[in-house]
Amino acid sequence: MANHILIVKLSSLGDVIHTLPAAQALRRRFPEARISWAVERAHSGVLRGLPFIDEIIEWDRRTWGTLGDFLGRLRKRNWDLAIDFQGLFRSAFTSWAARAKRRLGFAPLREGAHWFYNERVAAPKQPLHAVEKYLRLIEPLGAIYPGLPLSRSYLGTAVPAAAEGLSSGVPVPTGPEMFPLRTAEADRADIDAWLNERDFDSTQHRLVILNPHCRKEANIWPADRFAQLAGQLLAQDDVRVAVSGGPVANQLCERIAASHGKRVWRADGAFSLLGSAELIRRASVFVTGDTGPMHIAAAVGTPIVAMFGPADPLRTGPYAADAEVLTKRLPCGPCFAKKCPLHHEPAKCMTDIGVEEVFAAAMRQMERSRSSEQRDQAPNRRRSA
């Protein structure tokens, strides 16, 4: 029996979101268990209020000296099972330091993380999306997520459902069903007020959010390209444009907005994590590089245009059936580098993606969004949480 289960997925934002289907599968398999989640505080917001998680155990990694307290809190529990979905030294060490009777993870792993486990699952040899990879880890426990893997279509080419044994033939779940983020009434009220101040009317206007910042420098599409894109979008009478991101995005957002004045709305650093999720949910299109907020957009069901350079969208792209992913495959890629190893600044695989093709993709997504709303006869569905 597994009465006390510890999920170890400390970071990052996208990875935490991608683990939500696996957490739901564990809840279905062990309905009476107490399921806890060890996570860095910076990413814990997406776990708030989820009915399949009983406890969030936070590590404030940004504050010196908090690791001992974090591990001490873990040791106060008698864990029957700890599952390391991250597969790095620090996460594997966390599962070991928690003194769980069973410690499950993939093997082999870089950094020797698998030596901390006493139960190992062979790491998949074929490339899988992170969502499917995490579900593969818990298959031996009898935990599955019905309807997956998701059939995705990137660049007009279907991404095959490669994870054998995961699909059950049931209907494909929607983004909010797979990734059920729980925004609070205060978050919704904040976004209502922000949009009302700008005279945004969801029955007449379409909101496009540009998300320019990426944690990895090589993933960033140039700010001047975003500024040109904003100009083309604003030329559409019914389109309103906002820039988003945390405080680290301020400089990029300032550069994008500078040539358009108050016509480009600044949402960077304005809201909490779930407040930002609520704003993204209201958008008709979310235009972004490979970064955490891209996965929030997939979670809330907002149409996505994503530019991919050094990363592989088959593994870490938006887990959504209708996302548009633009990528230029060069002989050196995908290299997965944080900075271009060929010293292109910005990375050539990103600058090869042109403004016109991003604009065309955004317009296609807006048209699909409009058609979907008309079919559903619910033009205000993004406003009614």
Explain this structure.
This protein is α/β, with parallel strands linked by helices. The protein contains 14 helices and 14 strands. Strands 3-2-1-4-5-6 form a six-stranded parallel beta sheet, sandwiched between helices. Strand 7 (152-154) and strand 8 (157-159) form a beta hairpin. Helix 2 packs parallel to helix 5 and helix 10 (273-282) packs across helix 11. The two termini are 38 Å apart.
Write a compact overview of the structure shown.
The chain is of the alpha/beta class and 385 residues long.
What is the helix/strand order?
A: EHHEEHEHEEHEEHHEHEHEHEHEHEHH
Helix content: 25-40%
Which spans of ≥5 residues are poorly predicted at pLDDT below 50? 160-168, 378-385
Shape: globular
Could you tell me the strand content as a percent range?
15-25%
The main pleated sheet reads as: 6 strands, parallel
How far from one another are the termini?
Answer: 38 Å
What are the SSEs and their pairings?
Layout: E1 4-8, H1 13-18, H2 20-29, E2 34-40, E3 55-59, H3 67-75, E4 81-84, H4 89-97, E5 102-107, E6 119-122, H5 130-138, E7 152-154, E8 157-159, H6 175-178, H7 185-197, E9 206-211, H8 223-234, E10 239-243, H9 250-258, E11 264-266, H10 273-282, E12 285-288, H11 292-300, E13 304-308, H12 313-316, E14 324-327, H13 348-351, H14 355-376
Parallel strand pairs: 1-2, 1-4, 2-3, 4-5, 5-6, 9-10, 9-12, 10-11, 12-13, 13-14
Antiparallel strand pairs: 7-8
Helix pairs in contact: 2-5, 7-10, 8-9, 8-14, 10-11
